Amino acid sequence: MDLTNKVQFNKVVDAVFGKLAQSFPVPVTLEAQDLGLASEPLGAYVDGEWKPSDAVSQHEFFFDTVAWLVSSGYLAATRNFGESKFENAVLTEKLLQCTKSIPISLKF
Fold this sequence. Notes:
Radius of gyration: 15 Å
Largest sheet: 3 strands, antiparallel
Strand content: 15-25%
Number of helices: 3
């Protein structure tokens, strides 16, 4: 089976895990544009009306990927639908074990 979105998926995962590894164990906010995964904001209000940007598909792929990582247990985060971001994101023990990155202080 060939996963058609694997290159884009890997790009999101690399950016997300990289940011979380740098901040571990401090939770951070994840946003597609801040991670270089979207070329522009999701959209903006113009004259009181929401206008989506041309980057909607980039944001949607980011959201779907991070949501999958959360539901699969690789990271913990809370999705903020109103502001199009994930908050309090942090690596989980599952990911630390998969990457053999368990801090020495947690090894028995």
